[in-house]
Amino acid sequence: MAIPAQFKSVNESDFTEKFVFPLLHRLGFSVVVNYHGAREFGKDIIFGYVDAFGHVRYDAIQVKFVPLIGLNEVQGVVDDCIQAFTNPFRHPQTGTEECISSFYALNGGSISDQARDHYFNSLRPRYGANARLVDGNALLRLDQSAGMTSIQNVLPRLNGLLLEIEHNRRVATHLSSTFQKYIASYGLGTNITKPNPIPSNRFRLSAVELYLQQPFSTEVLSVNEVEAYWDRAHICNTLFGIANGLTTVNMVDGAIQFFLDHSSPMENSAAHLSGQIRGLLKSLAPLAGL
Known about the structure:
This protein starts with 11 loop residues before the first helix and ends in a 6-residue tail after the last helix. The chain is of the alpha/beta class and 290 residues long. It is built from 7 helices and 9 strands; from the N terminus they run αββββαββββαβαααα.
């Protein structure tokens, strides 16, 4: 049996670095340690996570990259599992000794039915369902599922970000028109009684703030550019809020002047970000089946 071409790997080490580690991270496991060759005792990789009860658990992976694990080869994998459960590992950050909760044997190729039977019959009496076996096709399906989950999470956030920025562009256009009429009638810096032209419209920033808290696609959507956009819009909102209260003419004029000074770079940034987001949505849509 051949190893699926999708893995694009040449050996076990390459497969581990280019496919297994990225997959674990995409599945949400934040603690991933490569123990291969370092007194591994059957544990190539150890990853950690917090279970539903708030307990930290550690699982181990033994990575194989061969076209087929048959009956003659699977006993070595059984021995790896027994070693992994029998021998604790030393946590690289805390130095404490820890034990694994589950063991996964992953192979980039196939696993024969006889090998599966021998593996599970040998290990289930001692470890129950905590000894797992995953072949290359199952790994590809898991990778696709992880990708879909990630994309399905990202698409609503991208759409929300786009809608918010486009809304803010309309607000900025309305504010510019209102303030230009005000200046034409009353000017700026004149300490005379005049109507307060600042409307109740504000820039929406919840989707922008969510992106800054959890950025994604940072090669396309620069965190620095999004943050600069947020800074200008946030200051405008703050100044408009102050100017709408009991304040002086100078404070109102100052808020208007700040907006006019920053409206052009803010619009340029908004237009650039909108174009980037639309491009991302277009490229991600086929991956989400849209």
